[in-house]
Amino acid sequence: MPKKKSTYPAPADHSSLCLQYLRRCGGSARLCTINFSLGVIQTLVNRKLVKVTNTGAGFFVELDEAK
């Protein structure tokens, strides 16, 4: 029996938009100011594209330039 297609669109992966945002912000941004979900941030961390650092003044999301 073939699988039915959903009439609802699948949720879009906004990880590329988040990477674009970080590039425009100079490579890092405060975690509390980012309007992307924590799931998107976690996906980018798992892919080793970004890293989250604690500077003592808050958490920052930074592009991981070690490619």
UniProtKB/TrEMBL annotation:
It comes from the Bacteria. This is Uncharacterized protein.
